[in-house]
Amino acid sequence: MQAFLLCALRSAVVALAAVLIHLVASPADAWQTRPSMQAKPNSSDALYGASKKYEGSSEYVHLKYNMGPVLSSNITVHVIWYGTWQLPQQSIILDFIGSISAASVSRPSVAGWWSIVRKYTDMTGQNVSGTVQLGKQFNDIHYSHGKSLTRVSIQSVIKTAVTARWRPLPVDQNGGVYLVLTADDVYVQDFCSVCGFHYFTFPSIVGSVLPYAWIGNSKKLCPRTCAYPFAVPDYIPGLKPLKSPNGDAAVDGMVSVIAHEMAEMATDPLANAWFAGNEPSSPVEIADLCQGIYGTGGGGSYTGQMLVGKDGATYNMNGYRRRFLVQWVWNHLVSYCSGPNAVDQFS
């Protein structure tokens, strides 16, 4: 196992060298929560890849394993709260993270959704870990890098958190992943065109290779883009927004993006494991393939069959204290999008 980890690290260093040579940071995923009718070209498409959607069809999907590592060790999620956050907002997100490995939760459950992610293996046959636990948290309430961030400066935010004099985050190279969650008054490069992305940190900036993801709160900037389907874009006429399960459309929308990035960090942490397409710098990963699908029959502007509570809120899975609406992921064993609320799994 140690030899394999050394090999994986060498692969990361090689990939890093290529990135530095081209002077471009290429996050492995740039994702929109809403279904895309047509990719809109912008200045970043050539660098980061346009959002792709396959409507759950296996005909056009050629997902393959590219010999890189998956997160087979116990996964620890370290959270960076960048900017001003309210405790109820944090509670929704932390409860979701705590639900990924939660047992004894009624079906359909968040853990049932993660069981699909767990089906992915590395070259030794080790599955993605079934243990996902909350690690340390860092509150960057002073906006240490301002309220307008570039994609690369997200890594500087992580550096600030792991080098802080007061309660720094650990540099966790054994299953640690880092979530940079920006408040609703923070703009990140290409935000609204994309709602989140994941990649790994550069040793030249952070000092280590660490999987990380950024997800933004879209309440003030673009809820119709990144809080879908709790807010609906103008180009889908007649579609009404759904009632969010936890009373905060923007944060409930963030939960699905966090889930999307968590699934892809677990199966493609160094951008060299599970993805479709021929370009590792902008792969189509297991959650990209199911964009906008939350239930059986989903595709296009139809989200699929979901559940509605007595309070009128829409959800598709239960956590240990809350309900959530989370996008499905690609199941490579059956070659279609899957979720715990699928009609053939839940009754």
TrEMBL record:
This protein's GO CC annotations: apoplast
Domain of life (superkingdom): Eukaryota
Subcellular location: Secreted, Extracellular space, Apoplast
Signal peptide: 1-30
Classification lineage: Eukaryota, Viridiplantae, Streptophyta, Embryophyta, Tracheophyta
Family to which the UniProt record says this protein belongs: Belongs to the EXORDIUM family.
Protein name: Protein EXORDIUM-like 3
Pfam families: Phi_1
Main location per the UniProt record: secreted
Natural source organism: Trapa natans
Keywords associated with the record: Apoplast, Secreted, Signal
